[in-house]
Amino acid sequence: MKGLILAAGEGSRLRPFTFSRPKHLIPILGKPMIRYSLEDLVSSGVRDIGVVVGYFGDMIREFLRDGSDFGANITYIHQEKRLGIAHAIYRGIKEGFLDRDFIVYLGDNILSGGMRKYVEHWLENSSDVHILLARVPDPRLFGVAVLRGGKVVKLVEKPREPVSDLAVVGVYMFRDPELVARAFKSLKPSWRGEYEVTELIQWFIDNGYKVTYSTIDGWWKDVGTYEGLLDAVYLLLDRAEPRVEGEVEGEVRGRVIVEKGAVVKGVVHGPAYIGRGAVVERNAIIEHYVSIEHDSKVISGGVSRSIILDNSTLDLNKARLVDSVVGSRSQVKCSKEAHGDIKLIVSDYSTIIL
C-alpha cells in the first residue's frame, strides 16, 4: 500500500514559531515533528510515501529529500491552496500517486505505540475506510464519530454540542482511490472554506460502504498549538528510555536522555532530554519534563516543563523558567535581581532581557 503525509499547512495556531519554518520541522526530543509520522508509516511496512507540501515546502523537501535516509521512497505533491484534508488527498489521487490502497497520516500528529496493529485490523476487516478514534475531554475541538451498534453512523466536524467524545485521529485508511475521488467530487467547502475529511468519509457511510474503526489504547497528540507542543514533550518523555551518550560532569537523576556531543555540568532531573551539542552549565538546574534541543545552552537558573528549541541560550541567574517555549536561535537573560517563576513564549531569533 501507499502512504500520504499531509504537511502543507501554515500552522497558524503555532505562530510565532511558524513564521520562520513549517510546524512539521519543529523538533521534539531531537526529531522534527514530521519524522514521527514518517517513521510510523515505515515501521508499519509502508515505504512508498507521498508528502503533500505547500507552506515552506522547500524546507521540508530539503530535510526529507528522497526519503532514503529514513527507509522510504518519497514523492512530493504540491497543494497550492490549503483547502482542507480531503482536498489534499484528492491532490494525491489527481497527480497519479495514490493508485492503490493507502493510508493518510497528518504530519503534525503523534500516536503512541504506532499504528501497525490498527493497519492489520483494517486489512483483516477488508473495509473500504478505516478510522482511528480516541476519547477526548473536549470534543468541540475535533471531528468526532457517532457510533450505533458497533458501527460508525455519523461524523461531525467540531460539534458545538457534545454528540460524542470519540475524536477522529489524524490517520485514515482507504481501499479504493477511485471511490475516494468520486466522493470528493460530491463535496462542497464547509463554513471554514475547506473540504472536510469527515464529510468525505460520511459519503462512504451514506452510500452503504463498509467503514470500520479502531479505538486506540494509548495516547494521541495533535500538535497544533504551543500547549500541544508542550503536551507532546510530556507524553514522549513519559515513555522515553534513559540513555547517556554525552559527557556528564554534574548530576543526572532519573530517566534522562543525554545525546552524543551534549555536556552536562549542572543537575538534570528526569524525565528530560538534552539534545546533541547542548550544554547545561554548572549553575543550571534542569527539572522534570524539559527538552533542550540541539546546540542550545543553559548557563544559569532553572528550567521546568518547557521546550528550548535549537541554538538558543538561557542565562536565568536566580529565575526559573516554567511552562515555556523558547524559539530557535533566541537568547533569554535575567538580571541578578530577578527571582521566582517566569513563563515565556518566545519566537525564533529573539532576545529577551529581564
Could you explain how this protein is built, in words?
This protein is an alpha/beta fold and 354 residues long. It has helices spanning 33-43, 57-64, 85-94, 116-125, 177-184, 197-206, 226-238, and strands at 2-7, 27-28, 31-32, 48-53, 73-78, 102-106, 109-111, 129-135, 143-148, 151-157, 166-174, 211-215, 220-222, 243-244, 247-248, 251-253, 256-258, 263-264, 267-269, 272-274, 279-286, 290-292, 297-304, 306-308, 313-322, 325-326, 331-333, 340-342, 345-346, 351-353. Strand 9 (143-148) and strand 10 form a beta hairpin. Helix 3 crosses helix 5 (177-184). The model has no long low-confidence stretch (mean pLDDT 91).
What's the short story on this structure?
The protein contains seven helices and 30 strands. Strands 15, 16, 18, 19, 21, 23, 25, 27, 28 and 30 form a ten-stranded parallel β-sheet that branches. A seven-stranded mixed β-sheet has the order 5-4-1-6-11-8-12, sandwiched between helices. With 354 residues, it is of the alpha/beta class.
Q: What brief labels describe this structure?
A:
7-stranded mixed β-sheet; 7 helices; 354 residues; alpha/beta; 37% strand; 20% helix
